[in-house]
Amino acid sequence: MDRRFHFISGLPRSGSTLLAAILSQNPRFHAGMSGPLGGAFSTMLGELSGRNEYSVFISDAQRRRMLKGLFDNYYGPEYNAEVVFDTHRAWCTRMRQLKELFPQGKVIACVRHVSWIIDSIELLIRKNAFQPSSIFNYQPGGTVYSRAEGLANAEGMVGYAYNALKEAFYGDETSHLMLLRYETLTSDPARAMAAVYDFIGEPAYQHDFNDISFQADEFDLRAGTPGLHAVRKQVAVRERTSVLPPDVFRRFENDVFWLDPAFNPRRVLVV
């Protein structure tokens, strides 16, 4: 099968699972939650580097074939789809490699106000009060302040993804990058999906935004975070009050560089 690959990346709790669930309504497409390929890709890059004593026998052409083979073999014949969207936060750090391996491939990075990302994770932690989460290495201690700090640092769930997003946003492969705002996807899904289809060069498809289906309960339960990948049946904006202390919320409220055209010198598409 002449299969085409695209990539979903960006910030956590920003609509990537919802986007995948919507895309999966198209019978020509396959899309899902974050999977193992991002980590496998990084591991293979390392194993094929100079630290391997046999790297003298490995050419760049061989590296490309082996790395591309990860996708071809993982998405084998059991995936009956012409177009595959692989999801992982690391893809924003692999723009150059992805462009060389998949010249027609595009990266859709989901973004959201960082304060509301931290809030969304904190709300999950509180809802699952008797199940320590893998997000915090299953540690039951800490406060909302230490949790926010852990999420936002350079190696944290949010901080790493945020830095990776900025790497892609200010890099030189931005013609392959689109930022999709959570606020747009939930308030105007038809416009959001029209932009996605136009960006990847696929014919439009009539999606049903009132009948979304996605299931990852087993994964979320094992992660100690039921609801982590939950997707509601109907796409809609749901207003609520933040559970974060005001000072924690204010700390992150200006981290939305993609909203200011002055911070978008390469004119990355932001929808």
Description:
It is a single chain. By secondary structure, the chain is of the alpha/beta class. The chain has one domain (4-270): Rossmann fold (3-Layer(aba) Sandwich). The protein has helices at 16-23, 37-47, 60-74, 95-101, 114-127, 144-152, 157-169, 182-187, 189-200, 217-222, 246-252; strands spanning 4-10, 29-31, 83-87, 107-111, 177-181, 269-270. Helix 2 (37-47) packs antiparallel against helix 3 (60-74) and helix 5 (114-127) packs across helix 11. The chain is globular and about 55 Å long.
Blueprint of the fold:
Blueprint (H helix, E strand, L loop, with lengths): L3 E7 L5 H8 L5 E3 L5 H11 L12 H15 L8 E5 L7 H7 L5 E5 L2 H14 L16 H9 L4 H13 L7 E5 H6 L1 H12 L16 H6 L23 H7 L16 E2 L1
Parallel strand pairs: 1-3, 1-4, 2-3, 4-5, 5-6
From the structure above, extract its key features:
single chain, 271 residues, alpha/beta, Rossmann fold, 11 helices, Sulfotransferase, P-loop_NTPase
